[in-house]
Amino acid sequence: MKVLSFLFNSSIGRKFAMALTGIFLITFLLVHCGVNATIFFNDGGETFNEAAEFMGTNWLIRTMEIGLFIGLLWHIFQGLWLWQNNGMRRKQKYGKSAGNANSTWYSRSMGLLGTLLLLFLVLHLKHFWIVSRFTDEITSGQETLYGEMMEVFGADGLISVVVYVLGCISLSYHLLHGFQSAFQSLGINHPAYNPIIKSLGFGFSIIVPLIFAAMPLAMHLGLLQ
Amino acid sequence: MTLDSRIPEGQLGEKWTKYKSSVPLVNPANKRNLEIIVVGTGLAGASAAASLAEMGYKVKAFCFQDSPRRAHSIAAQGGINAAKNYQNDGDSVYRLFYDTIKGGDYRAREANVHRLAEVSAAIIDQCVAQGVPFAREYGGTLSNRSFGGTQVQRTFYAAGQTGQQLLLGAYSALERQVGLGNVKMYSRHEMLEVVKIDGKARGIIARDLISGNLERHFGHAVLLCTGGYGNVFYLSTNAMGSNVTAAWKAHKSGAYFGNPCFTQIHPTCIPVSGHYQSKLTLMSESLRNDGRIWVPKQKDDNRQPNDIPEDERDYYLERRYPAFGNLVPRDVASRAAKERCDAGYGVGPSKMAVYLDFRSNLMNKYGRAEANKMGIENPDDETLIRLGKEVVKEKYGNLFDMYKQITDEDPYEVPMRIYPAVHYTMGGLWVDYDLMTTVPGLYALGEANFSDHGANRLGASALMQGLADGYFVIPYTIGSYLSKEIGTKSIPTDHDEFVAAENRCADYINRLMGINGKQSVESFHRRLGLIMWNKCGMARNENGLKEAIEEIRSLRDEFWKDVRVPGKKDAFNPELEKAGRVADFLELGELMCLDALQRNESCGGHFREEYQTEEGEAMRDDNNYKYVAAWEMGQNNNWTLHKEDLVYENIKIAQRSYK
Amino acid sequence: MENEMKIKLKVWRQENEKAQGKFEEYDVNTNPDMSFLEMFDVLNEQLITEGKDPVAFDHDCREGICGMCSMVIDGRPHGPKGGITTCQLHMRSFNNGDTISVEPWRANSFPVIKDLSVNRSSFDRIIAAGGFVSVNTGNAVDANSILIPKETADKAFEAATCIGCGACVSACKNASAMLFVGAKVTQLALLPQGQAEREARVVAMVNQMDAEGFGACSNTGACAAECPKEIPLSVIATLNREYMKAKMNGK
């Protein structure tokens, strides 16, 4: 394992780990988004509940879920460590800042955006994951996950909806920088492929959070049964 | 003391080979006990420090900049010569040797120059091995271009940044030795005195520029690689910090100064634009490959350059020197520009400039060649310009950008305005064949010595000389001295001579700080520069030089009465650094004028108005002045002239002609 | 003079590394053709005649190649224009009456010496750790015996144009030196001469970079945007790749 120690003790290694876990989380987002989007079939959550059931019981998925949590925690702790550590590299700050003249604000705010996402995630896990995995209603089949969603985002769920939309906005900006940054950290930067990575990243960062945000909105506005 | 240049016996072509195989060696075990101090980390200093450390000597290297990588060699643009004959155009060691002697107007030593030409090829090999990214052809071979004063293509280059790439190569070799612990690097340190014990150079006193502390450093030998003194003119293409201090302190400690009046005025620099100007920027000589120099035929022609038709332009270099045209040596090109401007044909707001015009080559040479390649028949002017621009951009892009940045004019569209400016000093500390000064154990390398360029240096030869001295000459020649020093133990720096030298430096600094006058160091420097430029610049005459000497003396007195050096001596104090340097320039200036005054002839960069042909060409006097003027400093700025006769056994001396 | 410009300067003054610094304001008369550093010459001349301490700032070649000059002007290293150093910046890039703030490079790894001068010897130590080809003088083969495709040579040259000024570090929110290190690693990784110690080099240089206290790279691109020699961000990707390869090989 010594060969991999650089992932924890060198600046480039840490960023390499951030990139790998980041891309892993991006693929998770794609799956998550795809599964959840089934609510737009507007079939009273039937397809969605079936998918959720599958995701919750299939042993392969459940094993991968452990990997997902490891990746997530790794991404979070490494990210927080980098944020804190990088912040100490300039004790005396500039009197006047360059602002956005040489970089975008969100590329400089990944730690902040990530922290917002983390807070959102805690709420999100409490809303759905804990409920779906550990409470009796859903595991015993009395209540469906779809029903749970309807409850959280329904007519009384305005605050939740706002929080979720804000979470999706944070996600979008986090991805706008994170997606292509991950490739750069992995050393993938080639004039022939850069435009592809760039447009793919841009599309992903806009479309996926938009779909996510549409779910609570649609439920809250009563557009789904 | 008689000057002994210690040139080895034998045929010219065999001297160096024989020398190398017979010079005494120092065995590896002894090398570890021998310490060498290298002052200056430009091409000569960095390459010498690295090479000597690789050989096993203990090296201490000093530079006043914050990093050895910033030495002014970094600013050399055009290229480096080497007799590789890769272009199959008839180049050879002999031809490079001959061109250099001729270009130097027969005032350089045959043996030194031949050695330089011999090792030139190895420099290119060494640099390539270090990863210097020279320009290349599509087949992967190295590319060459031509420079002034030659008719072959022997100049290797890396865009317009050759000096930078070569220096970074030498710097990386130096840093490698620093990393290995063989070199101890002292940056932001300035040498203030050579310490002599029993007549031999045994160390230096250096000031740590950050803390202001004076430090004593011992060495079995001391190498000065501290560059030239062009900044005596205030305005020059040198860096702001370039100075004569180390060489001057050595001179004061007994090292003779050779040919101080031989300064090179570079023909293609951006003209002065205002009184606040702090330095002049060079436009590489390589531009003369493709730029044509002209002025309007009509005096005070106020039309825009592009509006002046072809037949109303005077391409005066092509007119006067048809064989070499725009590629005549620097001294010739500079004087020709001055002649035109003095005669009233100058251009631009100050009327002290000439045009360097790329349009015709951009269109007709490159544009047309590209069009031919692409099979475009009868291309219009616009197409030619567009295609030519791309080629020119690749060759000189960074220079064009630099010009635009400074002048706010686009040289792709309008001709550059250029005027000569001080660029290089051929003169320097007198050294023998071993590069040793008249002080045993004290060496001078690169621009700091006088040795290889005679009265005028050819383009792309400074880089060659700096690296030749550092990589390939000193590693051999230093053995001749150090082999006799293996019994000398390191001398502790509490030795009386070290203490006395440090005290002298401390007193000197106290004196400077104590004047507390009203005028800034900068203002004195500016005034000195003006005297030098007007009276000891591109053209000199007896009266002017005599006046200049008086003016410099009184300016020096005024300096020591009325200069103001703010700040503290025991802290970071750039004004104090500058004050010490200007104080030395104020002495050097006088010696330059003295030297120019005694040399009653015109040769190379030294043009005495009294000695010219009817056509205005320089008139050399080989019967009376075929010697190196080596000046010995006595008390109170009194100098004694020693002469080293130059013997030409292999070259027939002729009046230089580029017609 | 007709083109005269009046500028208010807010300059960072700091006695030495340990001292507390602060901004001080100065009025300077300048003109559009003056360079930014020449304006500082004028200011210093003014301060000296007034019996005050002139502003210490680093500068040397004043033609954009030595890498010595280092001012953060209105928050931007080397000022508002791209592709140039402070010494190449002219007052025509500003307007009459402007207030301009001038600060030193700020990074823990570049301690302030005085006012606007900083100590960048950390860069030298990174090069000393591995930024070279280990070839002793006299060991070279004929320069044309190894052919290098023009495209490769040009790319290596592009990376090699780095002047080591440190603008990348000063622009980066993490004070990261990845662009500087990436440029050298890229140059030597591209050339056949640099192959023998390719892996050892990148690891040694990155270790030194980390030990010097530079931050990690966040890929914001500020370094490349402010680089006076316009070294591209791709050199950082190359550095990442080279480092990863070396690490995976157990270096």
Protein model, in words:
The complex is a heterotrimer of chains A (225), B (659) and C (251). Chain A is mainly α. Chain A has a single domain, classed as 3 helical TM bundles of succinate and fumarate reductases, CATH 1.20.1300.10. Chain A contains nine helices and no strands. Among the domains of chain B are: 266-422, Flavocytochrome C3, Chain A, domain 1; 494-632, Up-down Bundle (Methane Monooxygenase Hydroxylase, Chain G, domain 1). Chain B contains 17 helices and 22 strands. In chain B, strand 8 and strand 9 (214-218) form a beta hairpin. In chain C, a hairpin with a 2-residue loop joins strand 6 and strand 7 (117-118). Chain C contains eight helices and seven strands; from the N terminus they run E-E-H-E-E-E-E-E-H-H-H-H-H-H-H. Helices cover 35% and strands 13% of the residues of chain C. The mean pLDDT of chain C is 96. By secondary structure, chain C is of the alpha+beta class. In chain C, helix 5 packs antiparallel against helix 6 (198-211). A five-stranded mixed beta sheet of chain C has the order 2-1-5-3-4. A two-stranded antiparallel sheet of chain C has the order 6-7. Chains B and C meet through helix 3, helix 5, helix 6, helix 11 and helix 12 of B and helix 1, helix 2 and helix 3 of C.
